[in-house]
Amino acid sequence: LFAGPVDFFKGVVAMDGLPPADRTEVCFAGRSNVGKSSLINALTGRNRLARASNTPGRTQEINFFTLGESRYIVDLPGYGYAEAPVAVVEKWQRLLKAYLAGRQTLRRAFVLIDARHGIKTVDEDILTLLDKSAVPFQVVLTKADKVKAKDQDRVLAQVRSALASHPAAFPEMVLTSSEKGEGIATLRAIIAGIV
Ligand code: GTP
Ligand code: MG
């Protein structure tokens, strides 16, 4: 699936700008700066397809990328802290939630969690929204290259126990590093099996 062409399709700022629901899709959600755009670049092998940055709040639109002829891969704006004006952030948070709750062709939401920090309150809010909307989701731990071996098991246990109370959650998590390539092939295979 990822061997074929991947292209930027559209940046969406309002629900009425969403592309027609004529392809299946997966999306990447998570706190600002958790590594969503970087992960899309790692998955597609295209370094600058999605714009990544050290500044939280880099992605401010819902970005659709075409994966072959019949799928989209979707990069979302982050939630939580962002270095952008409050009114702007509120607008994209509403859009993000409307998208997650109401996109018929969304096959799975990947919720990215920093492997150093585990699940926070802002993440819980999104996981609950996904439960209520019956959107199956799977946690992807990011920045594995930055987590110390001694902390890894503790964070994994925290995430596993938090997921137990979310009916829409897949129990399996994927540990990734966009920097080092860890977990990328695994995640590609998971996506190929869904869309
Ligand atoms: P927003 O669009 O602002 O919500 O952020 P995002 O979730 O798209 O994060 P982005 O991909 O822009 O990455 C944020 C920062 O984390 C960048 O400086 C990346 O280089 C860095 N980063 C992302 N993934 C990794 C990783 O696996 N390892 C390390 N060490 N850094 C990473
Ligand atoms: Mg981004």
TrEMBL record:
Q: Which GO terms describe its molecular function?
A: GTP binding; metal ion binding
Q: Which family does it belong to?
A: Belongs to the TRAFAC class TrmE-Era-EngA-EngB-Septin-like GTPase superfamily. EngB GTPase family.
| Ranges for domain EngB-type G | 22-195
What protein does this entry describe? Probable GTP-binding protein EngB
Q: Which cofactor does it need?
A: Mg(2+)
InterPro entries per UniProt:
G_ENGB_dom, GTP-bd, GTP-bd_ribosome_bio_YsxC, P-loop_NTPase
According to its UniProt entry, one GO biological process term is: division septum assembly
Q: Which domain of life is it from?
A: Bacteria
What Pfam families does the record tag this protein with?
A: MMR_HSR1
What is the documented function of this protein? Necessary for normal cell division and for the maintenance of normal septation.
User: Quick check: keyword Magnesium in the entry?
Assistant: yes
Q: Record keywords: Transport included?
A: no
Q: Which GO terms describe its cellular component?
A: cytosol
